[in-house]
Amino acid sequence: MLELWLSTTSLGFTELPYLQVPFAYAPQVGVGVALLVVGTSVACFFYLIRKRCLDPKKFKEFKLIKKTQLSSNTAKFRFALPTPTSVLGLPVGEHVVCRGKDEQGKEIIRPYTPITLDSDLGYFELVVKMYPKGRMSHHFRHMRIGDYLPIRGPVGRFRYSPGQARAFGMLAGGSGITPMFQLIRAILENPKDKTNIHLIYANTTYEDILLKEEMDDFAMKFPDSFKVYYVLSKPPEGWNGGVGHIMKEMIQSHCPPPAFDIQILRCGPPVMNKAMAVHLNALGYTSQMQFEF
After folding, report:
1. In the annotation, is 254 catalytic?
2. Which one of 51, 152, 155, 210 is CB 3.0 to 4.6 Å from 86, fit for a cystine?
3. pLDDT value for 140
4. Fold agreement between 60-154 and 167-292
5. Where is the FAD-binding FR-type domain (predicted)?
């Protein structure tokens, strides 16, 4: 008998148990083991060279390489990572903190959630709604290609793991869609993740709906896993979605009912978040079933 001991501790793995094989098959097994070890080494090498760029303690600067106007007051900003194989290193569910200067030149810090995942190599993207009197909005509004944005992270209390809930109900308003979109992408783009998603997304006008094309595409590709219901307070003529604000009856109709294995996530303006908490409590969703970004 020939005993073989496989050790990949140099790659950061635990040693594998030895194999006992009949001596007559030793050459074939030896070759197979060699290929296994080489293949593992190569895979680990390519994983390790995907540099993770975030630092939770200090700000690092990233160069703006593309700016796409989505509406009159909203744009998508693409920032380059150090190398084409770099990943941002942001766990799904968490966000980053961005630093800029307001109109008076005073430093301002605000949280944002990228809409990209670590499967997007070499860059990350932020969708930013720029308000007329917003202090950080001023900074983004005046950013030009080639400018640098300081960011720090990961930050946040919510970190997603596949299977942590049977289903998510999502209540989003305005730019509060970005953390939801990040999670939606992570779930739907993972073939092994069977989590169901029910999104209610509220805005003022049709033009205010962010990432609508992407979400409609997801709804078409994954009809059994993802459903979206749009609500507008100023709908256009012929609108067949929700009208007004997100009400208790809408949540009952479009979100999973209270259960130990569901979670309801909410993200929007403070007034909306407060109203949603009242609705959810009245419908019987416990505090353990709710999370506010």
Report:
1. no
2. 51
3. 98
4. no
5. 57-161
